[in-house]
Amino acid sequence: MLCFHKTGAFKAPLIQAITMRHLKDFDFIEGVIQAGSIRKAAEDMNITASALNRRINRFEKEFGGEIFERLPRGVRLNPAGELLLQHIRTQRSDFARLKSQVSDLSGVRRGHVSIACSQALLPYFLPQEIARYRYQHPGVTFSVNGRDRVAAERELSEFACDIALVFEPRTMVDFEVVFSIAQPIYAVMQANHPLARETTVRLRDVLQYPHITPSEDFAVRILLETAARKTLSIELNPLVESDSFDFMCRYSESEDLISFQFPIGLDMSRTPHLVARPLSEQDVATGNLLLGQKRGRTLPVSSARFIRDLAGSLQNLEA
After folding, report:
1. Is residue 97 part of a domain?
2. Looking at the 3D structure of the chain, how many domains does it have?
3. What are phi and psi of 74, to 5 degrees?
4. How far is CA 229 from CA 205, 213, 222, 279, in A?
5. Are strands 68-71 and 74-77 parallel, antiparallel or unpaired?
6. Which domain holds residue 216?
7. Which one in 73, 129, 170, 230 has a CA-CA gap of 20 to 30 Å to 65?
8. What does the pLDDT read at residue 224?
9. C-alpha atoms less than 13 angstroms from C-alpha of 57 in its C-beta half-sphere
């Protein structure tokens, strides 16, 4: 029977009690979800398929219903399983936040911060920000993964990351914006290129020269394609495509091709043979870099403070 404290707060609902008793079961369940079948999950976890199946059956019996649909070639979550999975991820997030708060009580900040971000943030911006934070809080660890906007949103919704820093998120369903900063597209070229004399370059002029562009999933490419169709009624015709902005910038050093990047991903002092010129905003819309977290989620202390610091740094860049 559930009961309440005098303050009105209940001790713990049944589902939370089940959560604490079944932490290992949750690991097995997530393993089956990732593998797509009990047999494959058992191989990955180095146990027998019959033992794993018994454990899941026992959990489903106590849970009060099945969580998987058994298919001819594997299993998948049913609606009850989807609800359970969301609960598991929420409880783990809350537990991580609790551990972080306890560490703060002892005066030693610990914790882990996971970030999904656009490639432009990987070379310069995030290394500086993380190093600055860890200098003050060496007990905090980080994982940083380059993700496109769709993957970053998905990881936020699945609690696979705490923070996302991406250009032009697509759906914004679970994306709570903490800070937004405008970023114009820059054309990167060799210092002796004819357009290097200009302070701002027009899209029609840039596309007359050989160029290299990001792959179609990237915000830079989408903005360029939209502008080319709208203002010039043409399609992009890159000689080289890549999903690596670092590769594209380096390629412009090796061959006289114009590449494209947002300024937060550039440090021209490291590429003395290249220059970067902004594309005219009359031609190409400015991109938006969004810093965010999962909507409605209370982040662990370390992640909450780091996202606050990021917002401050982005605000300084904007100024």
Report:
1. no
2. 3
3. 150, -155
4. 15, 16, 11, 16
5. antiparallel
6. 185-285
7. 73
8. 95
9. 8
